[in-house]
Amino acid sequence: MRTLEDILLRHPFLKGLDQKYLKLIVGCASNVRFRAGEFIFREGEEANHFYIIRHGKVALEAFSPERGAITIQTIGEGEILGWSWLFPPYHWPFDARAVELTRAIALDGKCLRNKCEQDHDLGYELMKRFAYIMDQRLQATRLQLLDVYGVHDERG
Amino acid sequence: MSTAFMMREADDRDPMVPRLFKVRRKWREARDIFTIELSPDEGTHPFSAGQFNMLYLFGTGEVPISISGDPARPEVLLHTIRTLGAVTRALQRLKTDDLVGVRGPFGNPWPVDEAEGGDVVLVAGGLGLAPLRPVLYTLLARRRSYGRIALLYGARKPEDLLFKRELERWRGRFDLDVEITVDIATGDWLGNVGVVTKLIPGVPFDPLSSVAMVCGPEVMMRFTVKELLRHGLAEERIFLSMERNMKCGLGLCGHCQFGPLFVCRDGPVFQYSRIKELFRVREI
Hints:
The complex is a heterodimer. Chain A is α+β, with helices and mostly antiparallel strands. Chain A has helices at about 5-10, 20-25, 110-120, 120-145; strands at about 30-35, 40, 50-55, 60-65, 70-75, 80, 95-100, 100-110. Chain A has a single domain (about 5-150), classed as Jelly Rolls, CATH 2.60.120.10. Chain A has four helices and eight strands; from the N terminus they run ααββββββββαα. Chain B has two domains: about 5-105, Beta Barrel (Elongation Factor Tu (Ef-tu), domain 3); about 120-240, Nucleotide-binding domain of ferredoxin-NADP reductase (FNR) module (Rossmann fold, 3-Layer(aba) Sandwich), CATH 3.40.50.
C-alpha cells in the first residue's frame, strides 16, 4: 500500500521539493473522503486547507437564488483544489461540492501558512507552485470566457 | 438532354460539375445543428476521414461541409451542418428525395494510416467533432492496429453536444477513453466543466508514439496545440483541420488561401509543423 509520503512525493505539484519540506508537508496531510453531493467547503467559510484530488470530481459552484447552483469549473483527479488559505482574509469565495465519491489528501493550510512565514524558502516554493496553478486556471478561464463555440459570424 | 443526365455523365471527369444526390434522411443534432444523409441514385461516393464536399443547392449556392459519416460506408454520405447562412438554412429545409449537388470529396485526409502502432488523441471542439467522427469509426474498425485511443470533446453547453447516443456508446467501451467537458453547465449536468484543454493532462498517452488530431474553432486549436506540446508531443505529430472560405475545392479560385497554401487543396488537414508560422498571423 502506498503511504501518504509516496503519493505526495510522486505528485507533480511537489516535484523537486526539498526532502525536509516534503516531510514537513506530509506532517500536515491527511486522507479524506467525500460522498457524492457532499460539500467540501462553503462560500464564506474560513479557508484552512487545500486538497490534492486522488479520485473523483469536485464542482466549484456559486449559488444564485434565481438559477440555483452554477458550476464554474470541475476539478478532477490529480488536480489541486483551493488556494484561499494563502491569501487574506482566508475565506472561500465559492462552494466546492463532490460530484461523485471523491478521495483526496487534505493539507493543513493554516499550519503551512505559519511555516511559510517562518521559512521564506518554503513559502517561495509553495507560492511558485500555486502561482503556476493559478496561471493555468486563469488561462483556462479566459478561454472559457472567449465563448469559442458560440456562433459569432454569418457564413454559408 | 436533361441537366440531371448531363451531370451524371460528367461524374469523375470534371470536379467542377456536381453529381446529384437525393436526401434520404435528416435529423437534428443540437439547437442549430443537423445531420443530412445523402445518397446517389447509383454507385457510391468513396471518401477518406477528414475530407469535405461542396454541397450545391440549386438556385441558392454552394457550401463546403466536412463528411461526418463512416468511410467504410461510401454508399451513405453524412454531413453535419450548423445553420448559419442562406445555403445551410435552405439545406435544413430540404425534404426526403429532394436533390442536392455534390462536388468532391476534396482535401487531405487525417493521418489514420500513419498513426498505426501508436496512441491516438482526438481533440474536438463544438462542431469539430463532425470531421473527427470518421476517424473514430476507422480507428475502432481497426482497433488492434492502435495503442490507446482517446477522444476529448468540448462543447459550449450540454445541450450542444453532438452525436449523444454514440458518445454514450463510446463511453461504455473499455478500449476507448472518452472525456467530455462543457464551458457552461446547465440542467443536471454532472460531467466536467471547463475548457477542453484541461482534459489533456488526464489522458495517459505516450508522447513519443502518439498522434493528435485536433478540430474546432481556431482559438481552441491554438490552446490545444500549446497543451499538447507541453505534454511532450512533437509538432510533427499534431494535425489540425483548418477552416477557410473554400469555394472551388481545387486550389484554383484562391478564396481559401492560407499564406502560400490553399486550405481546400493542401488541407484542410495540416501537420502543425507545416503551418505553425502561419497560425498566429492575424492578416492571413
